[in-house]
């Protein structure tokens, strides 16, 4: 596609449920990043992929959060047993490689945990 | 101390004025510095990046970097109401993962 796409655009879930967020990067981009933006806050790094491997998972807030990437393309961020503090906008970005200066952001998934 | 700090604002300037946005960072090994613009409810879009000391100009935008003082700034000349947005400063640190560390952003209001 022309840009980074994410789905769903909005997700409302109940506390304790699991959610899956999907990111489809720009074709040919090998690096993929997940960030989280809570209300009124800056972006918080979660995890980064180079190809299918994740050399840096340092931003994942807890073991309820996991992510995978298959085929060097689509990535899924999974949050298990969601909590209200997980409510945020989850943004995915991709770049040609880790040395590339430009990360292109998707539109985000707005997650609300009731 | 936060890794990347910005004044949250709002910074209010009249149309046609110069808007000056500032950012400081803590990691002396940081290599690259970015300014993103984010309109309300939208995702961030890159304005420009800088990695060498000094100034870098792109149209109405000028990024300034001073590594000794660990600050980076963004000047917007001839500010327009359409420039009203939140401006995020981001730093790529000394690790080689490409991850960006963002400040909380400065809200700019350009009044007609």
Overview of this structure, please?
The complex is a heterodimer of chains A (114) and B (112). Chain A is 0% helix and 50% strand. Chain A contains no helices and eleven strands. Chain A has strands spanning 5-7, 10-13, 19-24, 31-37, 43-50, 53-56, 65-69, 75-79, 88-95, 104-105, 109-113. In chain A, the strands form two sheets. In chain A, strands 2, 4, 5, 6, 9, 10 and 11 form a seven-stranded mixed β-sheet that branches. A four-stranded antiparallel β-sheet of chain A has the order 1-3-8-7, with no helix packed on it. Chain A is globular, with a radius of gyration of 13 Å. In chain A, 33% of the residues are buried. Chain B has 112 residues and is mostly beta strands. Chain B has no helices and eleven strands. In chain B, the strands form two sheets. In chain B, strands 2, 4, 5, 9, 10 and 11 form a six-stranded mixed β-sheet that branches. In chain B, strand 4 and strand 5 (45-50) form a beta hairpin. The radius of gyration of chain B is 13 Å and the shape is globular. Chains A and B meet through strand 4, strand 5 and strand 10 of A and strand 5 and strand 10 of B.
């Amino acid at each position: 596609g022309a840009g980074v796409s994410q789905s769903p655009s909005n997700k409302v879930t109940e506390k304790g449920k699991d959610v899956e967020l999907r990111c489809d990067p720009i074709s040919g981009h090998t690096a993929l990043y997940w960030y989280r933006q809570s209300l009124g806050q800056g972006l918080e790094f979660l995890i980064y992929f180079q190809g299918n491997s994740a050399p840096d998972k340092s931003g994942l807030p807890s073991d309820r959060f996991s992510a995978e990437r298959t085929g060097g393309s689509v990535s899924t961020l999974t949050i298990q047993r969601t909590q209200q503090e997980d409510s945020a906008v989850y943004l995915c970005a991709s770049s040609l490689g880790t040395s590339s200066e430009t990360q292109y952001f998707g539109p985000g998934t707005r997650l609300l945990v009731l | 101390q936060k890794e990347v700090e910005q004044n949250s604002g709002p910074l209010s300037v009249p149309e046609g004025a110069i808007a000056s946005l500032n950012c400081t960072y803590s990691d002396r090994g940081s290599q690259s510095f970015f300014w993103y613009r984010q309109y309300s409810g939208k995702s961030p879009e890159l304005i420009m990046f800088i990695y060498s000391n000094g100034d870098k100009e792109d149209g109405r935008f000028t990024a300034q970097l001073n590594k000794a003082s660990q600050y980076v700034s963004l000047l917007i000349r001839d500010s327009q109401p359409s420039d009203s947005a939140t401006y995020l400063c981001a730093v790529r640190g000394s690790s080689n993962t490409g991850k960006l560390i963002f400040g909380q952003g400065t809200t700019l209001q350009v009044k007609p």
